Amino acid sequence: MHALPLRFPARLDLRAALGEVLAGHQANAGFVVQGIGSLTAARIRLAGMDEMTELHGDLEILSLAGSLSPDGVHLHIAVADAQGRVTGGHMGPNCIVRTTAEVLVALLPDHRFSREPDALTGYNELSIRRLDAR
Q1: Alpha-helical regions (H) of the chain
Q2: pLDDT tier at 133, thresholds 50, 70, 90
Q3: What mean pLDDT do residues 46-57 have?
Q4: Burial class of residue 91 in the structure, from the number of CB atoms within 10 Å of its CB (0-12 exposed, 13-18 middle, 19+ buried)
Q5: What's the rounded Cα separation, in Å, for the pair 91 and 131?
Q6: Which CATH number characterizes residue 54's domain?
Q7: Count of domains in the chain?
Q8: 69: nearest Cα among 131, 118, 122, 125
Q9: Percent helix, strand, coil in the chain (nearest 5)?
Q10: Domain limits at 31?
């Protein structure tokens, strides 16, 4: 495992930027171990819902974690608004960094992650393959 601490600047779409991390480091598998920072906008899909909930304003990232594969990301986020209300769920696109986002990614050079259809859940789920050590 290779630890990769990252800082993302203001006005960046955080989910999109995390989706590009593997390609930028010639990796095929990774996990977001934790993330903190702030957002001006967040799109979060709450548990069991089909539509995204949109939040705007000063938002603090309390937690960010998930898996990174070359064909997609699966990220969960919890944010607090200026009144301290917390919202959490699946991180959607257009989560825009307000001041900074500090994220620790663990790259897994001996693995390849992919997102593949799962008949049981009906979703594309994580598929884990160990690469041959040559």
Answers
A1: 14-19, 21-24
A2: low
A3: 96
A4: buried
A5: 29
A6: 3.30.1330.80
A7: 1
A8: 125
A9: 5, 60, 30
A10: 2-130
